[in-house]
Design goal:
Number of helices: 2
Oligomer: single chain
Number of strands: 0
Largest sheet: none
Radius of gyration: 25 Å
Helix content: 40-55%
Order of helices and strands: HH
Low-confidence stretches: none
Number of domains: 2
Strand content: under 5%
Distance between the termini: 54 Å
Structural class: mainly alpha
């Protein structure tokens, strides 16, 4: 319940507001809380996935599972991933 505390805080304000308008607080709580808790955890999941996606872009956007092709494809590993990196400059000289 502690992880869903923000949803409960928003729910408290919503239930009180609906109660002032004459709507049953019990009914509004029973309807709103599952929706608010789902929305809260969905938001948290979306934010975490977004951060993990940004972290995976450092390795060419392929993430950690690209390691399985290192050694078989001739791709140079970079930071423990199999992202291919161009090692030549504009004129074709190898960058060291």
């Amino acid at each position: 319940m502690l992880s869903a505390l923000p949803a409960f805080v928003v729910g408290e304000f919503a239930v009180r507001g609906l109660g002032r308008m004459g709507i049953s607080q019990v009914s509004s709580f029973m309807f709103l809380m599952p929706v608010l808790i789902f929305a809260w955890y969905y938001l948290i999941g979306w934010l975490l996935e977004s951060r993990l996606d940004v972290a995976a872009r450092g390795c060419g956007g392929r993430g950690l599972y690209a390691n399985s092709i290192v050694g078989r494809s001739g791709v140079k590993p970079c930071r423990d991933c199999a992202a291919g990196h161009d090692t030549h400059d504009i004129l074709g000289a190898e960058i060291k």
